Amino acid sequence: MMVAKSKAPRTRMVPNWNYDHHQQPSSSMNARTVPSHFFKIILPSTMQQMKLSIPPKFVIDFGDEISTLATLTVSCSGTWKVGLLKAEKNIWFCDGLEDFFEHHSISAGHLLVFKYEGHSNFHVIIFDKTATEIKYPSSKNIILEELEDTVVLDDSNMSRHDMQPSDTSSKERERAIQAAKLSMPKSRSFMTVLQPYNIRFQYVYVPKGFANKHVAWNQFVNLQTCGEKQWRVRCYCHTSTSSAMRLGMGWAAFSRDNYLEEGDVCVFEMIKASPTVLMRVSIFRAHDYVVN
């Protein structure tokens, strides 16, 4: 009599998310049974609005413990601080997202996989349009970029970024700069000459010396021109290794409402430090200094 051979039990293969990314779950995540991954496909609208929504189901599970600032970690590419915008039951990545996308050459069609590791920390894996994981740029590039961004000229309180030439007539720009210098307070102020990236990417740098004395990182400040209206703008760091501060979320509205253009000069003056920082912004428009 033939005896049927028993079949060996099949082994189920489970993907190991830590296989090559040197990321171990934090102690706060060890006991989690709720799935902590999600993915996002980058759409054209994402690139236009420069906001990336977090899936509603993930927000329900983890939204209460997520702060207004997230840390994104990418293999071999360092860590990035990105602001989170919360509205009702929705959360978006916003401030700093432009820098993150630019550094990793992310565009419409890319796919990002997020692994939540607790305390507003996310490990990110990036796939290109061929569904293949990208070759990550070195984090050394971030450090070099930040060193350039934080150089400040003592006499004018301007970052070196703001001294780069633009398409605006150099004579018009120089006249606007001279006019701004004459009216600029000697203390608690800084000056910015608007460059193309300020208009396109919607942020301005805050000189390191001014930021260290007057502004906390990831803090909202109010900007006011000659009228009563105020604009709420977030001040944040470029990356977690950065000392360079930027005015980001809210700057686009301020720029649009005040019709700012490349070559215009803005003088920021500290008016009030608490409870919310208030800065007066004097605008010197390059086209006002055209000599016929």
UniProtKB/TrEMBL annotation:
GO terms for cellular component: nucleus. GO terms for molecular function: DNA binding. The keyword Transcription regulation applies. InterPro entries: B3_DNA-bd, DNA-bd_pseudobarrel_sf, Plant_B3_domain. It holds the Pfam family B3. Signal peptide: none annotated. Residues 37-130, 189-287 form the TF-B3 domain. Gene3D superfamilies: DNA-binding pseudobarrel domain. It is found in: Nucleus. Keywords: DNA-binding, Nucleus, Transcription, Transcription regulation. SMART domains: B3. This is TF-B3 domain-containing protein. It comes from Quercus rubra (Northern red oak).
